[in-house]
Amino acid sequence: MSNHMDNGFNQRGTVNIEIVRKAFSGSKGTLLALENILLTINPGEFVCIVGGSGCGKTTLLRIIAGLETQYEGAVFLDGKKLTGTGLDRGVVFQEHRLLSWLTVHDNVGFGLAGLTPEERSGDIRHYIRLVGLDKFEHEYPHQLSGGMSQRVAIARALAGRPEVLLLDEPFASLDALTRMRMQQEILRIWEAERTTVVLVTHDIEEAVYLADRVVIMSPQPGTIRKILPVHLPRPRARTDREFVRIRKSIHDELFGSDSIAQLATENR
Amino acid sequence: MSTAEQNRRLAWKSATTEVSANPPGKIKRIYIPDRLLGWIIPVSALLLWELLARLGMLPANWLPAPTVVGKAIYQLTVSGDLLKHAGITIARVAVGFLLGASAGTLFGGLTGYLPVARKLLDPSLQALRSVPSIAWVPLFLLWLGIQETSKIALISVGAFFPVYLNLSVAMRHVDPKLLEVGKLYRLSTFQMVRRIILPAVLPEYIVGLRSGLGLAWMFVVAAELLGASSGLGYLMVDGEMTGRASIILASVILFAIFGKVTDWSLNAAGRELLGHRAR
């Protein structure tokens, strides 16, 4: 555990994204999912990627994770070109994707290899405690609620001590109250672990609440429309004037400032 | 609380316990635990059967009383015939099931894991499956003779298909999202099979094994009825030839017991393997 605490400031975890093109070819022809994505994510930074469905934000995250390898361009982690998946990146999906036949303990330790059983167990317990599930270590996934399962998934992603934590709409399937609690939790975990975090979401408020920088994407083809820094101190109040202003500016960026007027005309 | 109040409460308490233990009035309710409900019909039927047989209302050579059948089983046991015939039947089922289930596991695993193997093998296997398995009997007898080989071949065919089908389908339906988790942790093909695919298909595989075992028992009867000089099926034929209905019924009952016991053991072993996971 001590080695987490030592490097309070982690210089590792720089992500350089230089994607020229990513296309999916299907029966109906080719779909251009991403085009000209240039983005550098700093070590220890919390970046949120927002956009509507089909803007390629999940594809972008999957490329960083190494789950999509067919694209033009390159992604670098600490200067090293990524060619596939790796333990240097932890991934949390929208669904928890826990293995139903393993306990919380074994799910968290699923990807850990090359350690003595004691080290392994110690690591696993550290992360189970970090996500606040000490009492559920020996439970099975079907005994957990949605929020708890997602905590286990976060612990599993962190257990390999990744330099980057990638989250793909991790709280989208949770109820509103659990989602807000999980947003606070992920900040607490991020502050404890100091890893770089990239979180994909369609929830503008979530992005403003969490991110150091919000990357706004637009669809067809998926491109970066704007990058917006959020300089508000944490913990952020969702009703704070500046918070609301930033939220509105992202909204306007995504939908246009006259979107309500537009909706009104469309409905007529 | 006043004494009167306490007394009233006591009276009320004793009254309520009395009600639940033994309802007052005309309606006397018999409480039967749920798990015993299923026994009511078979036990009553047995009693009625015994009664009618004793009263001579059922012809003894067609439907002997349960006690007579019980006596037949007892006599088979003491004479050592039961051990001999049941032993050979169990051995046939064991060998046939083992061979069939192993082949089913091999082909099911292969076709479930490799799409190319499925495209190559599955149509032929499905075509073979549509042949009612008993239809193989004459051919097996011709090819393999009347000895053990033909019987074991038939039982294997019976056990093969459920195992093959369940495993193959289950492997094809392993959640790709879970396989992606394995990919994230850079599992090798072997690790992927051992750590994700096998645990994921285990419930369906056990279902396949259980139906395979059921069919193995069915086919051992067919095999033994159609040409055997030993086994429970032979005992049935013998009972028919010599007009001893009690022997036939005794064999039927023994088949039922063995089938149930082996299925139950397999199920218990399966539950042990599955542990506490979600059903």
Describe the protein's architecture and organization.
The complex is a heterodimer of chains A (268) and B (279). By secondary structure, chain A is of the alpha/beta class. Helix content of chain A is 36%, strand content 25%. Chain A has one domain: P-loop containing nucleotide triphosphate hydrolases (Rossmann fold). Residues 1-10 of chain A have low confidence and may be disordered. Chain B has 279 residues and is mainly alpha-helical. Chain B has eleven helices and no strands. Chain B has helices spanning 3-21, 34-54, 66-79, 81-113, 115-129, 137-144, 148-172, 176-184, 189-225, 232-241, 245-274. The model of chain B is unreliable at 15-21 (pLDDT under 50). The A-B interface holds A 65-67, 84-87, 89, 91, 93, 95, 97, 99-101, 110-111, 140-142, 160 and B 177-178, 180-181, 183-186, 195-196, 199-200, 202, 274-278.
Could you give a quick summary of the protein structure above?
With 268 residues, chain A is an alpha/beta fold. Helix content of chain A is 36%, strand content 25%.
List keywords for this structure.
heterodimer, A: alpha/beta, Rossmann fold, six-stranded mixed beta sheet, 36% helix, B: 279 residues, MetI-like fold, 79% helix, 0% strand, flat
User: Segments of chain B where pLDDT lies below 50 for 5+ residues?
Assistant: 15-21
CATH level-four homologous superfamily name of chain A: P-loop containing nucleotide triphosphate hydrolases
Q: Spans of chain A of 5+ residues with little confidence (pLDDT < 50)?
A: 1-10
Computed over alpha carbons, the radius of gyration of chain A is: 19 Å
Under CATH, the homologous superfamily of the domain at 90-269 in chain B reads: MetI-like
Computed structural class of chain A: alpha/beta
Shape of chain B: flat
Give the CATH level 1 class of chain A.
Answer: Alpha Beta
So what's the oligomer here? heterodimer
Number of helices of chain A: 9
